[in-house]
Structures are given as C-alpha cells and as structure tokens.
Amino acid sequence: MNKFSIMEKYLRSQEDLGVPNDLILDTKFDFPAIKPQEKPKPEEKIPVKENVGTTAPGRPQELAADQPPLPYSQQTESDKRDELAKLFYKCRACSACSLSKTRKNFVFGAGTAYTDIMAIGEAPGADEDEQGKPFVGAAGQLLTKMLAAINLERDKIFIANILKCRPPQNRKPNTAEIISCFPLLKKQIEIIKPKAILLLGGTAANTILKNEKSVGSLRGIVHYYENIPAVVTYHPSALLRDASWKKPAWDDLQRFERLLKELKIA
Fold it and tell me: What is the mean pLDDT of residues 37-47?
C-alpha cells in the first residue's frame, strides 16, 4: 500500500468517525502572517487589497458557523472570502504536525477567492516562512513570469501549497505531514471551486492525483481531480536548478492556456 492509499484510507476513516472536514485553507488576498503563539484578537480583520472591490469579511464570531455555503451559482466574491476567512481563523494556529513547532509563519495562501483557477505547489520555503505568503522568493518571481506568459495575473488566481508550514531545510514533505495538511487544501478547493488547476511539481501532482509517478511521466495530458481538469508541470524551484526543463515547462503552460480557452476561462 503506497502513501497515498494510506492517506485516502486515513481521510475516509476520519469521515466515518464524523470528524468535520473543514480544516482547510485558501483566499483571494494575502492573509496576515500569524505566529503559532499568537491568539486571535477580537478586533483583528483580514486586510483587503484596494482592487478587490468588496468589504472585508467579518470577525469569526460574526460569521454563522452552522450556515452552509451558498450554491456556486449564487455565491459572490464576498461569500467565498467569508468562507475562507472562517477557515483561516480556525486553522491559523494549526498544530496537527511537528512543523508547527519549527515554522515562523503559517502560510495560508494568496490570490482571489472568486476565481476559476488554482495553482498548487509543494510547501513554503524560507522566504515564504518569513513573510507568511506563498511563492514570494526566487521561485515565486519565476512563477509570476510563468503565469504572465499565458496572460494570467497571480492576484487573479488562487495560489496554495500542499503544506502550509515550511519543512526544515526545505526537505520534501513526509507522509505524516501530507496526511495532516491535505484536508486543509481539500477544503480550500471546495470553497474556491476552481474549473482548472495547475500542479507545480511532483509533491503537488502526486498528492492531488494520488500516485507516485514522476513529473515527466505525468506531463503532456490533462488529469482530473474531483472532475476538475489539472495540468502538471515542473515546480519553479526545479526550473531554477535545471534550465533544461524550461522548454517542457513552457509546453505545459501552453497546454494549460489551451485548456483555459476550451473551458472559456481565458
């Protein structure tokens, strides 16, 4: 039994036990960096970018915890932002795995809550851990250029990682960490309801697609996660290490662009 079968079995067992599946993260704006020791402040609100055009979500206690999300067709950007805000406040001090003891900041995600596109990477690095935002280092700068090459602005999509905390020395996430953190990402996807996903690197692809194949073998076709089409490409940090992968990565981006056009997203 591979690690993804173990993860799936674990998640199903949690559902059978009635454990709520609402430990997941994501959003259209940058959430504030939160240290694990900090406690939520009643007056604290999530900052809103000026170009968002909506009001900031209320504090957690102002949001009806038992109110189900509206159907997708009836949701507004504010509705989705509120759902993500509730999730953020619930999970920002997560201690489900040992990474909570070594992280500087919990990296929730960034972008827009009301989007049809998500990009998913592996885990925060040193810069991300320092700032509490995903893809802000050299790899993040390259990702911004990659998205711009297919006419996508990073603040108009939602960017997240499989893990929300940095593994020490940027090592690969282990099975226990993925099992602990994946429900958070799953919830983010449920809230965003993207129509297309760009998977950046092997960890993201293997976790979402539930396999252990190499990025090279997963490239070239459209995959599906919960009926959502997904394209696999190399992680920007891998491209910085090996420039020979930039040409196939460009092919992947063009494939993703064609998919978006077919779905009438772009």
Answer: 43
Domains of the chain: 3-262 (3.40.470.10)
Give CA–CA dist 19/35, Å, rounded: 26
Pick from 157, 156, 175: nearest CA to 167: 175
Distance separating alpha carbons of residues 93 and 127, to the nearest angstrom: 19
pLDDT for 193 beyond 50: yes
What distance in Å separates the CA atoms of residue 234 and residue 238, rounded to the nearest whole number? 6
- pLDDT of 11 above 70: no
Determine contact, residues 71/43, Cβ cutoff 8 Å.
no
Tokens standing for residue 124? 């925060």
Please name the amino acid found at residue 10: Y
158 bridge partner residues: 111, 118
> Can you give the pLDDT at residue 6?
54
Tokens of 20: 């709520």
pLDDT at position 78, please?
79
Q: Count of alpha carbons within 13 Å of 92, Cβ hemisphere only?
A: 23
